[in-house]
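Hello,

Our lab assistant flagged a job as stuck in the queue for most of the afternoon. It eventually completed. Since we weren't sure the result was trustworthy after the delay, we are filing this so someone can double-check. Below is the sequence as submitted and the structure that was eventually returned. Let us know if re-running is recommended.
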Amino acid sequence: MPRAGQLKNKVNFTDNKNYNKTQSFQGYTKIIIICIDRDDDIGIKSGIETPIIGKDYCIEAGTRLAIEDPEDSDCNAVFGAIKSYEEFRTKGYDVEVTIVAGEFNRGVEGDVKIAQEIDKVLDRYNA
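-- returned structure --
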């Protein structure tokens, strides 16, 4: 079993690179935190269309989803993305947070929708 920071492939070759979580994102001018709701629970349960861009809108969407279905794990994902946004913001990064969604039980079609929504976010945010 590889230790934290190590990757192991099927032929037992271990990548011994140590990944430093405190290392800065030097060279990056903009960061986008993307929360992906693959099965579109946020749209189905709260009636909000994606992509959702911006902290306040993501908080509203996460809250509405939590009210509709408090046990949905997507609630944790949304608020986890917002927490990451806040952490980067306090470190001085130009950061944005967004929620994108696929489609319920649509597999590859849902993945295509996710890719299209990410493209929309990137176009708007100029990242």
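-- support follow-up --
The delay was a queue issue, not a problem with the job. The result is valid. The chain has one domain: 27-125. Residues 27-125 form one domain.
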